[in-house]
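Renewal narrative, Specific Aim 1. Our central claim is that a sequence can be written position by position from structural information alone. The example that follows is taken directly from our test logs and has not been curated for this report. It begins with the structure tokens describing the chain, in the order in which they were read.
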């Protein structure tokens, strides 16, 4: 059974005027709607779905108008007013069906309020981040200008062939030149040769140090196959040849150990002290460690103070004669020495420089490498403190100004900060070669050097620093 077309059109008309129907018309509407539902072979149109669960009001209908209408038959205005009231009553019933309950309305308001609060906090957080970045950049610029003023100019870059690792990790060649303030770079050697490995994937930082007397083959110097030159002479030779010391050192590491260096940084005595003082204005707390000196444990170890000639003496300095210095194992004669006591203490940049360079205890150059690693690890571990965020930015600016480097400023402000935060996982330090894992041998100039198992340490370097 199906509804005929005439009834269907009537039903559509009543639906479109649902809010204006009389009681009788509304009764007709629901009768037609029920007839449509009962039609077995005709599906209900989508526009009627919203009325599926409508509960029909329980009214008694008759052919006569209610008593209230009969009393006003003489007044058409009264009848019309009554019908308007009736239509409004039914209209309000329909509207109330579509309105959410008080509980639903409150829940909806809370949800909207929660979204607004969430958006508000997101905007606040983003604003704070932008402000922090802007302030960090400001501190970086301030530190940069401070470094330029202190050194008199910006350290100039050298031509450098950047070699990248295939896995995306970054190697930074760190060189500490033994250049005195009055010397040119052409006579400087690199007392410190390190490669800092930053791996963003596993958030692990490696430091690999190469002992300066290790015998290697320097490209285009000496024999083509024999390790016959001390590795620290690569910088000096390169500087004497058109200022290419850093690049020749990088090529030497590549040819002998198979490692790539993407960036480099070179500091001398003066710039190192400036960097430390900018990072730690009140000094850096460190546990000073020395081996025995000529078999004796000294209460205060005399350490050469190379900056005394240009920056004056400090209270901890002491002048030793050649005889006094020789008795303590110093073959180069007397001079001004800084007396440093073993144990935990605060050091300024100058004292930390002297401590890191000291090599006249019974561990010799190997002991110096350990102190250099200790200093670098201590500096980096202190800088990872979030409270030093702005101080670190300022210090990085100073470092950039006084350091000869090809590291872009963007690296200092992005990956540099990230690398410092990654150091919460610790810093792993390795020395090549390991202690006493070498044989004494002579270089091409007759100087005593360290002969190592190059195959073994080439594999070790690539394991730690990538390829």
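The sequence written for that structure reads:
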């Amino acid at each position: 059974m199906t509804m005929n077309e005439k009834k269907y059109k009537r039903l559509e008309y009543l639906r479109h005027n649902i809010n204006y129907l009389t009681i009788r018309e509304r009764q007709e509407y629901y009768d037609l709607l029920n007839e449509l539902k009962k039609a077995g072979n005709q599906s209900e149109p989508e526009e009627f779905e919203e009325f599926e669960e409508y509960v029909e009001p329980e009214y008694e209908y008759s052919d006569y108008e209610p008593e209230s209408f009969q009393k006003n038959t003489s007044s058409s205005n009264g009848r019309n007013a009554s019908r308007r009231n009736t239509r409004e009553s039914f209209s309000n019933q329909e509207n109330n069906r579509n309105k959410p309950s008080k509980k639903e309305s409150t829940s909806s308001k809370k949800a909207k309020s929660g979204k607004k609060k969430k958006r508000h906090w997101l905007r606040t957080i983003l604003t704070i981040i932008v402000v922090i970045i802007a302030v960090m950049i400001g501190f970086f610029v301030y530190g940069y200008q401070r470094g330029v003023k202190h050194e008199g100019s910006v350290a100039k870059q050298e031509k450098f062939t950047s070699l990248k690792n295939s896995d995306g990790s970054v190697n930074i060649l760190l060189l500490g030149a033994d250049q005195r303030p009055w010397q040119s770079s052409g006579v400087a050697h690199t007392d410190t040769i390190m490669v800092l490995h930053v791996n963003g994937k596993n958030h692990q930082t490696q430091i690999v140090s190469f002992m300066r007397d290790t015998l290697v083959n320097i490209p285009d110097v000496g024999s083509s196959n024999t390790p016959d030159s001390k590795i620290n002479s690569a910088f000096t030779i390169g500087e004497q040849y058109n200022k290419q010391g850093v690049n020749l050192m990088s090529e030497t590491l590549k040819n002998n150990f198979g490692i790539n260096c993407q960036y480099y940084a070179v500091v001398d005595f003066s710039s190192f002290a400036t960097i430390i003082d900018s990072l730690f204005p009140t000094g850096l707390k460190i546990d000073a460690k020395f081996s025995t000196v000529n078999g004796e444990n000294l209460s205060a170890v005399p350490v050469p103070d190379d900056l005394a000639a240009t920056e004056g003496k400090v209270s901890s300095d002491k002048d030793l004669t050649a005889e006094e210095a020789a008795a303590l194992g110093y073959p180069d004669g007397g001079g001004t020495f800084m007396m440093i006591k073993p144990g935990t203490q605060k050091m300024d940049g100058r004292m930390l420089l002297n401590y890191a360079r000291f090599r006249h205890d019974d561990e010799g150059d190997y002991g110096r490498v350990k102190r250099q690693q200790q200093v670098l690890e201590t500096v980096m571990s202190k800088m990872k403190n979030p409270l030093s965020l702005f101080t670190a930015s300022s210090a990085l600016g100073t470092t950039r100004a006084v350091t000869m480097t090809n590291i872009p400023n963007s690296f200092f402000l992005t990956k540099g900060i990230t690398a410092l935060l990654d150091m919460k996982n610790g810093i792993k330090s390795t020395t090549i070669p390991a202690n006493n894992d070498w044989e004494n041998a002579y270089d091409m100039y007759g100087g005593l050097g360290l002969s190592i198992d190059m195959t073994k340490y080439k594999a070790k370097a690539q394991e730690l620093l990538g390829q």
